[in-house]
Write a structure and sequence with these properties.
This protein is of the alpha+beta class. A four-stranded mixed beta sheet has the order 2-1-3-4, sandwiched between helices. β3 and β4 form a beta hairpin. α1 packs across α9. The radius of gyration is 17 Å and the shape is globular. InterPro entries: Thioredoxin-like_sf (IPR036249).
């Protein structure tokens, strides 16, 4: 147990989080012995059954292109033809919290990102999330029992409230808790060393 925590605030359907993935892995590898790494969901878009407006679909496709150019992250644009996009990331957020009960939050996050960005499947849909759970070795009935429980909804709402108190300005965000102070760490999508150096400076103080 370390004295300091590095809090990673993310959303499973945040495309910038997908773009940050490789850099974030390097940061975790470098700091794993110095800080406790904590994952928290941010809740990008509330529950909705409404189809995503065409203007937002176009905006997000442009965002995917920009992230791909900037970070080298791969995207499967078939999603926009094959799926009915909805502006709803809360189901995916609940799914990673449900996986946390099985100590599989991070692998669930990876599974959701893979099916969304590479396999053109929609994580706003329950059947996609159940499929992801099964892929990582969680039985569908056990996963659904937790996913649809009041206990999980309370945990999710508490997490959203907690994140709102942090110095977070979007996703992904990094917040270092050191000596009972919270420090917003600037996310760099292509230079892990810049982030690591910033954190080392604070830890050394």
């Amino acid at each position: 147990m370390n004295n300091s925590q590095l809090i990673y605030v993310y959303d499973p359907m945040c495309s910038w989080c997908w773009g940050f993935q490789q850099c974030w892995q390097k940061i975790q590898d470098a700091l794993a012995n110095e800080v406790d790494i904590i994952y928290k969901v941010g809740g990008l878009a509330a529950d909705s059954d409404q189809p995503m407006p065409v203007s937002m679909q176009q905006f997000l496709q442009q965002t995917w292109q920009r992230i791909g150019q900037q970070t080298g992250a791969k995207f499967n644009f078939d999603f926009w033809q094959n799926c009915q996009p909805r502006r709803s990331t809360y189901p995916a957020c609940r799914a990673v919290i449900a996986a946390r009960y099985f100590n599989k939050e991070r692998v669930m996050l990876g599974a959701i990102q893979q099916v969304y960005y590479l396999s053109a499947q929609n994580p706003s849909d329950l059947n996609t999330l159940v499929s992801c759970a099964q892929q990582i070795g969680i039985a569908a009935d056990e996963f659904l029992a937790i996913l649809q429980s009041e206990q999980l909804e309370q945990a999710f709402q508490q997490e959203l409230a907690y994140v709102q108190q942090l110095p977070v300005q979007g996703f992904p965000s990094l917040v270092l808790c050191h000596k009972q102070q919270y420090f917003a760490i600037t996310v760099n999508y292509t230079n892990a060393n810049a982030v690591i150096s910033t954190i080392h400076c604070i830890l050394a103080d």
